[in-house]
Amino acid sequence: MKATAIRNTCSSLRIPAAFPGSRVTGLLRRCPPVAPAIFRAASAAPSGGTKPKFLVNFGKPSSKYAGFECDRSVREVIEKTKETMEALQKRNAAIQPSLAIIQAGEDDSLLEMNTKLARRIGLKVTQVCLEKECSEDEIVKEVLKLNEDPGVHGLYLHLPPASTTSRVLTALKPEKDVEGISDLSTGCLIRGDLSTGYVPPVISAVLELLNHFSDVSLEGKTVLVLGGHGTLEVTLRCLIERNGMVAITSHWTSKNLKSEVMEADAIVILEAGNMDLPPNWVKPGAVVFSCDPTHNTGTVLLRVCSSLSIIHSIWLLFLLQSPVLLFIQKNVVHSCTRWLQERQYQPWNLSSINLQPQTPVPSDIEISRAQTPKPVDQLAKEIGLLPEELEVYGRSKAKVRLSLLDRLQNQPDGKYVLVAGITPTPLGEGKSTVTIGLVQALSAHLKLNSFACLRQPSQGPTFGVKGGAAGGGYAQVIPMEEFNLHLTGDIHAITAANNLVAAAIDARILHESTQSDKALYNRLVPSVNGVRRFSPIQISRLRRLGMDKTDPASLTPQEINAFVRLDLDPSRITWHRVVDTNDRFLRKITVGQASTEKGQSREVWFDIAVASEIMAILALADGLEDMKTRLARMVVGTSRGGQPVTAEDLGVSGALAVLMKDAIKPTLMQTLEGTPVFVHAGPFANIAHGNSSVLADKLALKLVGQDGFVVTEAGFGADIGMEKFFNIKCRASGLQPNVVVLVATVRALKMHGGGPNVRLQTTELLEFSGCRSNLRKQIQIARLFGVPVVVAVNVFKTDTQAELDLVCQIAKECGASDAVPCHHWAQGGRGCIELAHAVNAAATRSNNFQFLYNLQLPLVDKIRAIAQQVYGADDIELSPDAKAKIDYYNQQGHGSLPICMAKTHLSLSHMPEKKGAPTGFILPIRDVRASVGAGFIYPLVGTMSTMPGLPTRPCFYDIDLDPVTEEISGLF
């Protein structure tokens, strides 16, 4: 109905004189096409009767409420909504609930109405005007865009009925569907679930005003819903009945309409068309609502008012647009409240997956395939992640966004557990398996929140000697094929970034050798559309050179020379190319053989991808900005003048950050029992620190809650992975561990007792040398840092009970707070319950964590402290090259960096064949190198290979794919 029609209706209305004390307080001043008014009519008793309950009030003009005076109940809703808003802003002063209106055409009337009402509450209202004849695709595109906008808390679709298609409604996020019009919202309301969607504003207003106009309880009252159909009618009927009333539905064509109207205590007109409700049908004292904005309200009101003998106690309310807008805005505030509540720490609701262990234990891949993982979005919801914090990669893995750290920044961390090991055999001793078994026991059996944080395996060992690294038996990450192969592409991103640096180095050397300063400058700072500009990374280089200039034309010839010439010395380039495959023939090659390279051939090296400094940076960075800074300061070589050349000097650091922007997000997976796992980073444990990422640990520590556990694993033995975890990773993260779990096996201890590798020997070897040398030493190393130690004896089927008891006894005598056998490989988490109890008990003990050395000590003293206190050496011996490098790094200001020793993992010494706990040796330092971007100095002890080679019979002989089922066989 047009605004003029409403004004005319109101101005022609006269209240009969028989209404003692009746009056008209005002007329509507401004009315949009859908009338913004609440009409309330109440009669007085006939002459000599009782005092009237209400006076007629057509709404006094008021700019506060878009030209109408709200009914008392409406004012109450506004005040309550304002109170909710104030409570929100006390929790977060910056928060402002926001409603977005999507409409076809550019009519601003609805925006104005919403804006005026929103000012009273404190909301923000925005309008998105599409073309009047907009398509379904355009509407859905806008809905999806606003769905993902964290600043929008409610969507209002002001569209023609034909445009609100099923596809449009399905696109609405339930949490932003403040009209309650989507199928999901309707279904939840009908089912009785009010926790997800919202009650449609029309229905909210009806229920609110029913309560307001009732002198007595509504229990048992009859409400007639007239003229409606579809979801609104069904939802209204369900909610009326849920409020204790009796709902009857009818249509204008019903034969029994008169009797149904006369029996009703309230009538709600959903659709009227051209139909009128005869006033003499209405039961005295009943309430009539018209929710149809096209209804000719004036006609009905005049007819009711003309029948004085009938309506002396009828209350008549015509419910049109403005109350609906009010309840929409109330839902927006409610949506914002939910939004903030969801961003608080949420208790876990983890559903574990039952295991059914078999005997004998099947192969790892058979076990993995027999267990169906939960959908990763379900797992994420169970542990308190929000949908917008998840980037799903298929069904079983997802990246987790770092925004989680900001959301939970005030949440206390959980307990931090490191799994390390004794000096291993070449096949390893099962640290990953223990890590997974422990978190399965903690979460699935003890019901304590726990997270495993693991390194991503390299393709090198997967296809080389060791095979997969997802754990083993009934303690592994699933699906193991995805875990062991490409995962989410992080290692590929590192390979691409690393080799981009290598390509930039060789290209720069070539161009500098074949061009003049002027030609180089013109190419490095080209004229684009007649304008020359420095890029931001070039301005950074100028500033490092002491030039505070931004105009390319202002540089002198000397400044241009300094700017364009990196003057890299080809013999002092330290950056290697990488590939994630064991390829021994790439250890040293010659590049630049083509004639187009103009004689710039040189010898280069390939490392395995996980040995890249970029991998170490990924593992130590605490955010995107920190990663960018570390990438920029990576030193790739030295100039002929003796100055370090960085990735930022090459101009490539911004591009590296782009390649790594997704890799910095940890990958969420799960164990066989459905407990969460973060897989992130996998730095080489020889020349890097060999631990998963700082970010994965930090995210997990927030998610598990104050009483939960994060179990992370360090590479190789305690002398390598654990020492680097404490002295490098904990310095970078600022985190302090609560417990160290030291993994030991009977087979390894026998080897350290003098037996051949991985062969069973006598208990005497176990007792007199293995346990009382290597195990004791590794426990002592952990205790150097002031952290309680629990020894986990990883049980093999060949171990005897006497051997297991002996190891546990000696471990306790050597200073472990506890020592327990673990049967997780054969039993899953159930076989690790004893270890879980021991870790839980140790985590409550006093912790005197300390670093091994002060960073301000000279580099030589830091190296010596590790050699003597951790390895058991008498002293160190520096080669001339090592001494020269240390002097150079001190000169460059890197003397305060921590030390990352690069030595064999097969012995506490530098000699792989020396088992047990060797003493009386001098540790030779043949070279010292720097990973300035990662932030450590790494001395090389003995001969270290950063590119493994394939054995005679690699693992890939057993790996195959069924072309019909696409199942992988032989992976492990």
From TrEMBL:
- Keywords carried by this UniProt record: ATP-binding, Ligase, Nucleotide-binding, One-carbon metabolism
Which pathway does this polypeptide act in? One-carbon metabolism; tetrahydrofolate interconversion
**Subunit annotation:** Homodimer.
Might you give the EC number(s) for this enzyme?
A: 6.3.4.3
Tetrahydrofolate dehydrogenase/cyclohydrolase catalytic domain residues are 75-179
Record-annotated Tetrahydrofolate dehydrogenase/cyclohydrolase NAD(P)-binding domain positions:
204-289
What Pfam families is this protein classified in? FTHFS, THF_DHG_CYH, THF_DHG_CYH_C
Family named by the database record:
In the N-terminal section; belongs to the tetrahydrofolate dehydrogenase/cyclohydrolase family.
One GO cellular component term noted in the UniProt record for this chain? cytosol
* Upper classification of the organism: Eukaryota, Metazoa, Chordata, Craniata, Vertebrata
What is the enzyme's class at the highest EC level? ligase
Tell me if Iron is a UniProt keyword of this record: no
**Annotated signal sequence range:** none
Kindly list the biological process annotations in GO that this record carries: carboxylic acid biosynthetic process; tetrahydrofolate interconversion
- Membrane-spanning residues where? none
Specify the protein name: formate--tetrahydrofolate ligase
